[in-house]
Specification:
- The complex is a heterodimer of chains A (275) and B (304).
- With 275 residues, chain A is mainly alpha-helical.
- Chain A folds into two domains: 165 residues, MetI-like fold (Orthogonal Bundle), CATH 1.10.3720.10; 38 residues.
- In chain A, helix 3 runs parallel beside helix 6, helix 3 crosses helix 10 and helix 7 runs antiparallel to helix 8.
- Chain A starts with 6 loop residues before the first helix and ends with a helix.
- In chain B, strands 1-2 form a two-stranded antiparallel ribbon.
- In chain B, helix 4 packs across helix 8, helix 4 packs antiparallel against helix 11 and helix 13 packs across helix 14.
- Chain B has one domain: Orthogonal Bundle (MetI-like fold).
- Chain B has 14 helices and two strands.
- In chain B, a hairpin with a 3-residue loop joins strand 1 and strand 2.
- The chains are: A mainly alpha (275), B mainly alpha (304).
- At the A-B interface, helix 1, helix 3, helix 4, helix 5 and helix 6 of A face helix 2, helix 4, helix 5, helix 6 and helix 11 of B.
C-alpha cells in the first residue's frame, strides 16, 4: 500500500486543521492580554496573568464550576453502569425481547436535538412532581438524570463496538470451566472492555461538563452550572475571564487525551507482545 | 443455582436483569417524556404553575371530559414566524451539512491515506476540539469575527480594508460556527468508512487507464456512500434544532426553530406552544433518524 497523498489533499488537511485550531489558539493567546477589549493586544502591559487571578477570585464562576463538577462525576459514574449494561446486552445477547427498542433508544439520544430532550425531560419532572411529589423542585438531581439519559447512549455505543471486535471464545471457555456468568463478566469481560469503560466515563464527564441546553431546562434556582454562567456572560460579548477559562479547559483536555492515548497505545503494545 | 431456576419460573433471568435497568431507565426518561410533550401540546395555555390546563377535566359529578385543543398547532401554521423558522432551520442545516462534507471529506480521505503513525496523530487532532467545550469554541468565533476582532484587525493591518467588516451576528457567522462545531462529527464516521477501503481497487483502476479523478468518482465515492450519509445525518439532524450557535453568532434575525422553542419556553412561558414546536420538529426529524439507523446497521454489517 502506498501512503502518497496528492498536494490537493495535503492542502485540504492544512487548511482544515488551521480552521479547527486558529480559534482555539486565539483564545489561549488573548488570555494573556492585559486589555479589557480582549482582542486588541495591549503590548505595553502584556503578557500578563491578571485575568487568571481575576478568575480565581470570581465566586460566581467557581461556585458554578463546583456544581458542574458534582453533576459531571455522578453522571459519568451512573452512565458507565447503565451504558455498560446496555452495551453488553446488545453485543452479547443476540436475541431478547425489546432488543430492537433498546437499540433504537440508545441511538436516538445521540442525534436528538438538545432542545427537544431538555424540554421533554422538564415536562416529565413537572408531571412527576404533580403526580407523586418527586422530584421536589429541580436542581442537581434532575440535571444529573437528564445528563445520564443522553450520556449513557454514548457509553453504550463505545462498549458495544469494543465488544463487537472481541470474539466470545474467552468468555465461553471460562463458562465451560464452570465459572458463573457474573464471575466471567468481572474476571474476563471487564478487563477486556476496560479501555472502553474508561473512554466512556471521560466522554460522559465531558458531555455533562459542557452541557448548556439540557441543564438550562432541568436546573432549578441556585443550581447554575458553569456553561449556564458562561453563556449568560458571553451573550453580552467577549470577556477576558472566559478566555482564561477556555485556556484552562483546553490544557486539561489536551493533557487528559494525550495521557489516555499514550496509555492505550502502551496497553495495545503489551497485548500484542503477550500474544 | 436453585434461586436462579426459581426466578426463571417467573420470567426473570440474569440476562433479563442486565438489560432491564438501562431499558427501564430509557423508557422512563427518554420515551415517556415524549408522550407528556405530546399531551401538553394539546393543552390550553394557563396563567398558573405549571402554565397549562389539564387535558382531563371533571365536568359535573361523574363525567370526565377530554379537552383536546389543536389551537397550538393551528397557531404555528397561521403565524409566518414559525413556518419561516422551520424552513430556515432546514436550509441552514442543509447548507452546513454540504459545507461540512466539502471540508470534511478531503480531510478524512487524507487521514485515511496517511501512514499509520501520522494517522493516529491526525485523528487525535480531529478529536481534541470535540472534547473541548462547544460553548467555548463558539465563543472563540465572537473574538475572531467582531468589529475590532482578530480577522478585522489583521485585514486592516494588511491594508485590504479600511473599515471593519460586519461579520458577527450575520448568517455568515452562523454558518462558520455550525461547520466549525460539527466538522468532527462528519470527519469521524467518514474516516471510519474510508479506513476500511481497499485501495488496491484504485491502483487497479489507474493501471487500467483511469485518471485519478475518474477513479475517485467511479470507485472511492460510491464505496464511501454510507460514510457520507452517516456523517451527514450526524451533522444535519442536530443542526436543525441547534440553539447555542444561532443564539451567540446569528444575531437577532437568525430564525432557527431551536431558538424559537427556547424563547417560547423561557421568555413567553408558552409551554404548550413550545411542546407543539417540539412535536413538529420531531416529526420532521424522525425519518432522518431512522435513515441514520439503517445506514449504521448496514455499515456495521459490512464491517463483519
Amino acid at each position: 500500500m502506498n501512503y502518497k497523498s496528492s498536494y490537493f489533499i495535503i492542502t485540504c488537511l492544512a487548511f482544515g486543521f488551521a480552521f479547527l485550531y486558529i480559534p482555539i489558539l486565539s483564545m489561549v493567546v488573548f488570555s494573556f492580554n492585559a486589555s479589557k477589549l480582549v482582542t486588541v493586544w495591549d503590548s505595553a502591559h502584556s503578557p500578563t496573568l491578571k485575568w487568571y487571578y481575576a478568575l480565581l477570585g470570581n465566586d460566581e464562576i467557581l461556585d458554578a464550576a463546583w456544581i458542574s463538577l458534582k453533576v459531571a462525576v455522578i453522571n459519568a459514574s451512573g452512565s458507565v453502569i447503565l451504558g455498560t449494561l446496555a452495551g453488553f446486552g446488545l453485543a452479547r445477547f443476540s436475541q431478547f425481547r425489546g432488543r430492537f427498542t433498546l437499540n433504537a433508544m440508545t441511538t436516538a439520544p445521540l442525534v436528538m436535538p438538545e432542545v427537544i430532550t431538555g424540554l421533554s425531560l422538564l415536562l416529565l419532572f413537572v408531571a412527576l412532581e404533580q403526580l407523586i411529589g418527586w422530584p421536589a423542585g429541580r436542581g442537581i438531581t434532575t440535571m444529573t438524570i437528564g445528563h445520564m439519559t443522553f450520556s449513557m447512549a454514548y457509553v453504550t455505543v463505545i462498549v458495544n463496538s469494543r465488544l463487537a471486535t472481541f470474539d466470545t471464545a474467552l468468555e465461553e471457555a471460562a463458562m465451560d470451566l464452570g465459572a458463573r456468568p457474573l464471575k466471567v463478566f468481572f474476571v474476563i469481560t471487564m478487563p477486556i472492555i476496560f479501555p472502553a469503560i474508561l473512554s466512556g466515563w471521560l466522554l460522559a464527564f465531558t458531555l455533562s461538563w459542557d452541557d448548556l441546553v439540557i441543564s438550562s431546562f432541568t436546573s432549578g434556582p441556585g443550581s447554575s452550572t458553569l456553561p449556564m454562567v458562561v453563556f449568560s456572560k458571553v451573550r453580552l460579548g467577549v470577556s477576558p475571564e472566559i478566555n482564561v477559562l477556555a485556556t484552562i479547559t483546553i490544557t486539561v483536555v489536551t493533557l487528559m487525551i494525550v495521557g489516555v492515548s499514550l496509555w492505550m497505545a502502551r496497553r495495545a503494545k503489551l497485548d500484542k507482545a503477550a500474544d | 443455582m436453585k434461586t436462579a431456576a426459581y426466578l426463571r419460573r417467573f420470567g426473570i433471568s440474569g440476562r433479563g436483569l442486565v438489560v432491564a435497568l438501562p431499558y427501564l431507565w430509557l423508557l422512563l426518561f427518554f420515551v415517556v417524556p415524549f408522550v407528556i410533550v405530546l399531551k401538553i401540546s394539546f393543552s390550553d395555555i394557563d396563567l398558573a404553575i405549571p402554565p397549562y390546563k389539564p387535558l382531563l377535566e371533571w365536568v359535573g359529578k361523574n363525567s370526565l371530559a377530554i379537552k383536546v385543543d389543536f389551537n397550538n398547532y393551528a397557531f404555528l401554521f397561521t403565524d409566518r414566524l414559525y413556518i419561516n423558522a422551520f424552513l430556515n432551520s432546514i436550509k441552514v442545516a442543509f447548507i452546513s451539512t454540504v459545507l461540512c462534507a466539502l471540508v470534511g471529506y478531503p480531510m478524512a480521505y487524507g487521514i485515511a491515506r496517511s501512514k499509520p503513525a501520522t494517522r493516529n496523530l491526525l485523528l487525535l487532532l480531529v478529536i481534541l476540539p470535540f472534547w473541548t467545550s462547544l460553548l467555548l469554541r463558539v465563543y472563540a468565533w465572537i473574538g475572531l469575527l467582531k468589529a475590532n476582532g482578530v480577522i478585522n484587525n489583521v485585514l486592516i493591518w494588511m491594508g485590504v480594508i479600511n473599515e471593519p467588516l460586519t461579520l458577527l451576528y450575520t448568517p455568515f457567522a452562523m454558518y462558520v460556527g455550525i461547520v466549525y462545531s460539527y466538522l468532527p462529527f462528519f470527519i469521524l464516521p467518514m474516516y471510519a468508512n474510508l479506513e476500511k477501503m481497499d485501495w488496491q481497487l484504485l491502483e487497479a483502476a489507474e493501471d487500467l487507464g483511469c485518471r485519478p479523478w475518474q477513479a475517485f468518482y467511479k470507485i472511492t465515492l460510491p464505496l464511501s456512500r454510507n460514510g457520507i450519509l452517516a456523517g451527514s445525518m450526524l451533522v444535519f439532524i442536530p443542526a436543525v434544532g441547534e440553539f447555542v450557535i444561532p443564539a451567540l453568532l446569528g444575531g437577532p434575525n437568525a430564525l432557527m426553530i431551536g431558538r424559537v422553542l427556547w424563547d417560547e419556553f423561557f421568555s413567553n412561558r408558552a409551554w404548550p406552544v413550545a411542546s407543539a414546536v417540539a412535536i413538529l420538529l420531531l416529526i420532521l426529524l424522525v425519518p432522518f433518524m431512522m435513515w441514520y439507523q439503517s445506514v449504521q446497521a448496514r455499515e456495521s454489517a459490512g464491517a463483519r
